[in-house]
Amino acid sequence: MEYFLILVFFFIVSIFLEWKFRVRIYHSLKERVFTTLTIFIIGMVWDYFATWRQHWVFPGNGLLGLRFFGLPIEEFLFFLIMPYFAFTLYKVFDKKIK
Length: 98
Hints:
Structural class: mainly alpha
Radius of gyration: 15 Å
Order of helices and strands: HHEEH
Number of domains: 1
């Protein structure tokens, strides 16, 4: 549950920063979908490979317990939320520096 709550926190912070500083992360819906899907697919391939090689595991502590294709649902959310957070933070810093 903690992992999920951390992701929700970062998602809320991202939305707040985007609103507060009036930054545009994407210029079109097509760009948003393409960028999000590209990062998501690369991230999921990486995650599957890393868990298959046992570089890391998800023992269950702090997780909701829902698994999809063997990975916790939080991992799927991670690759949707964290790039959005990173892009938002980058745009905010870029706007403030300029």
